[in-house]
Write a structure and sequence with these properties.
Blueprint: E1 13-22, E2 25-35, E3 40-44, H1 51-58, E4 66-71, E5 74-75, H2 81-87, E6 91-94, H3 106-117, H4 122-135, H5 152-163, E7 170-174, H6 182-199, E8 202-206, H7 210-215, E9 219-224, E10 227-232, H8 234-238, H9 243-250
Parallel strand pairs: 3-8, 3-9, 6-7, 7-8
Antiparallel strand pairs: 1-2, 1-4, 4-5, 9-10
Helix pairs in contact: 3-4, 3-5, 4-5
The structure holds adenosine-5'-triphosphate (ATP).
Adenosine-5'-triphosphate binds near residues 27, 47, 50, 52 and 53.
Pfam families: ABC_tran
GO molecular function: ATP binding; ATP hydrolysis activity
Protein name: ATP-binding cassette domain-containing protein
Length: about 260
């Protein structure tokens, strides 16, 4: 019998020679990296280097001009339209501002993707949505509140609950701790780690937050000029000689990582 334990686990996602542009401007120009199964990968780079564009292209939200994206070993380009629709449910996206529907309460926001994609009874849908509220550490009383009534941290958690609505295997987070106070940011990082560990999620986290890299990320990918600058663990990135990485990891804001 074949020993399956020796079979390599395919990467959750692989970005191969990716090119993305808008009009005559090329933003991503031949990018290669992988999101390994079960890891939390931090995506860093100078402002405007294309981190969000990369994340959106990986999530199928914007088209790419060249290259391919592989999802659990399957090239996206080889999938039928139907298969693409199905595979898109394998990931959830947490947008920078949360992007909750302001006219819907938290429960309705979480139920929204379920209405679109799952054939669940209203009762079961509501039950699952309540479970997601609990999963992200929101009180049950948050269910009937509207986004405008929530703090920034609660909005992030509610948006996270919605991104988990379809039980994704991959989570895309766009600057999840931006705008949170340091304590709230730390708790959010811990939540992401707990969710990744307990649900086996593979997470791509676009971030500028050095603390998040230290607390949450298993590896880091840095972009520059539309390409991969370097990928590695935090200690490998800290030891890197590339000028931007040196400034980033050893600048005045990096004091908490020193030592
Ligand atoms: N829809 C769009 N149309 C035209 N240009 C765009 C579009 N989306 C992004 N860009 C451009 O792509 C470049 C990269 O943007 P992106 O948001 O990915 O940067 P980023 O690395 O995430 O930056 P930051 O760290 O500041 O959030 C920017 O110059 C931006 O103006």
């Amino acid at each position: 019998m074949e020993n399956t334990s020796t079979l390599p686990v395919p990467a959750a996602m692989q970005v191969n020679d990716l090119v993305v542009g808008f009009g005559s401007t090329i933003i991503i120009n031949g990018l290669n990296f992988e999101l390994r199964s079960g890891e939390i990968l931090g995506l860093i780079g100078p402002s405007g280097s294309g981190k969000t564009v990369t994340m959106r292209a990986m999530a199928g939200l914007i088209p790419h001009r060249r290259g391919d994206i592989t999802v659990f070993g399957r090239p996206f380009s080889e999938l039928s339209v139907r298969e693409r629709e199905t595979i898109r449910r394998d990931w959830g996206v947490l947008f920078q501002q949360g992007a909750l529907f302001s006219s819907l309460n938290v429960l309705e926001n979480i139920e929204f993707p379920m209405r679109e994609h799952l054939d669940l009874s209203p009762k079961l849908r509501r039950e699952v949505a309540r479970m997601k509220i609990d999963l992200v550490g929101l009180p049950a009383s948050a269910a009937y509140t509207y986004p405008t009534q929530l703090s920034g941290g609660m909005i992030k958690r509610a948006a996270l609950a919605r991104s988990l609505a379809l039980d994704p295997k991959i989570l895309f987070l766009d600057e999840p701790t931006a705008g949170l106070d340091p304590i709230g940011a730390g708790k959010f990082d811990e939540l992401i780690v707990t969710l990744s560990n307990t649900l086996g999620l593979s997470v791509l986290m676009v971030t500028h937050d050095l603390d998040s890299l230290e607390v949450a990320c298993d590896r880091i990918v840095a972009l520059a000029n539309g390409k991969l600058l370097k990928a590695g663990t935090l200690s490998e990135m800290r030891a890197a000689s590339e000028p931007w990485l040196r400034d980033y990891f050893h600048g005045p804001r990096a004091h908490n990582l020193e030592g």
